[in-house]
């Protein structure tokens, strides 16, 4: 299954069945391990129009240029929606060369010239350089895998998670990163789950009981998305 042509971009795609296979599969894909890595988490299909516009500039003018300048690897869910589409488009807009690695359940990914596996399936985002198809048939099955892939790719080098917007699956994403003791930067002002967590970080009372244990872990911090982009960078 390697490689696949997604419109005008060729994406290296591999199936993986067990976490122990990750080091050898990443080598097979010519992905360099032991480099700083960003685990990008957040809203997929339900980013509002206002939230989309708010975070688009952050991806295009801050996140993608930093990934390029610092020679980072970026790991996300890989499908053509929300933050994954934003980082793909941002990478393309700056003609970026940094690795952009998607991790998605094999039972939910639509592949070229093949029937869709189900009603809830989604195509891969076309600007991703690599995609790992992991076991699963529900959104959220990929959460622990993304965190593990980021750990293998970073090795002894720094890694961080950036959480933008997000829905139900994003809670699992945050928990998976905290479980491997990775710092999670919550983008305050990007909407939904991110804003709930940012309020909890600030000490405000929040309605979702999942926020407090994550904040109490000490692995969450927040940045105000309304700051000038230069300050965010």
Folded structure, characterized:
36% of the residues lie in helices and 22% in strands. It is built from eight helices and eleven strands. The strands form two sheets. It has a nine-stranded mixed β-sheet with strand order 1-2-8-5-4-3-9-10-11, sandwiched between helices. It has a two-stranded parallel sheet with strand order 6-7. The protein is globular and about 45 Å long. It starts with a strand and ends with a helix. The relative contact order is 0.18.
The mean pLDDT is: 91
Query: What is the N-to-C succession of helices and strands?
Result: EEHEHEHEEEEHEHEHHEH
Largest sheet features: 9 strands, mixed
Kindly state the number of beta strands. Answer: 11
Residue share in β-strands: 15-25%
Poorly predicted spans: none
Number of helices: 8
Helical residues, percent: 25-40%
* Gross geometry: globular
Category from helices, strands and their pairing = alpha/beta
Describe the strand arrangement of the main beta sheet, using strand numbers.
1-2-8-5-4-3-9-10-11
Gap from first CA to last CA: 37 Å
Rg, nearest Å: 16 Å
What's the layout of helices and strands?
Elements: E1 4-6, E2 9-15, H1 22-28, E3 37-42, H2 49-69, E4 73-76, H3 82-93, E5 100-105, E6 109-110, E7 122-123, E8 130-134, H4 143-154, E9 159-164, H5 168-179, E10 183-188, H6 192-201, H7 211-216, E11 220-224, H8 229-232
Helix pairs in contact: 2-3, 4-5
